[in-house]
């Protein structure tokens, strides 16, 4: 019998925020984590390091994009959200340095297979979901004054 439960690197429905950009970026991050996890099963070390570098690039781009959007929209929880990013990035960079120096040690493997996916799942549900809801509330609705502003119609 095949076990069909999702693994920690699987992108699953409960992580969908109904925000196209955030969902696309999150799906890419989970795909990168899956590729990294597969390489931990005996893939060549240079290939593993390239896969982790690609994950790091996409992760940093995603966090920067999210932080810029939080500033642009004056998200009330942006300081706390950014702090969560900063703490995670510090740990991620430490793991990456160990990977470069010592290879895929048991702690590095745990980080890549368990801790990063768990952090990302937690972060999406606890930090990003409220941010996505905030963004959804800010979308102009039909008849919203923000839509009518400058549409060329005169009220008088």
Q: How would you portray this structure in words?
A:
This protein is an all-alpha fold and 156 residues long. It has a single domain (19-136), classed as Hemerythrin-like (Four Helix Bundle (Hemerythrin (Met), subunit A), Up-down Bundle), CATH 1.20.120.50. The protein has helices spanning 20-39, 45-72, 78-102, 106-138, 145-148. It is elongated, with a radius of gyration of 19 Å. It starts with 19 loop residues before the first helix and ends in an 8-residue tail after the last helix.
How would you name the CATH homologous superfamily? Hemerythrin-like
User: Total strand count, please?
Assistant: 0
Share in β-strands? under 5%
* Domain module count: 1
Main beta sheet: none
CATH topology: Four Helix Bundle (Hemerythrin (Met), subunit A)
Provide the structure class. mainly alpha
CATH class: Mainly Alpha
Overall 3D shape = elongated
Radius of gyration: 19 Å
- SSE order, one letter for each helix or strand: HHHHH
Count, helices: 5
Helicity level: over 70%
Mean pLDDT: 85
The CATH level-2 architecture is identified as Up-down Bundle
Protein name: Hemerythrin-like domain-containing protein
Keywords: Iron, Metal-binding
Family: Belongs to the hemerythrin family.
Pfam families: Hemerythrin (PF01814)
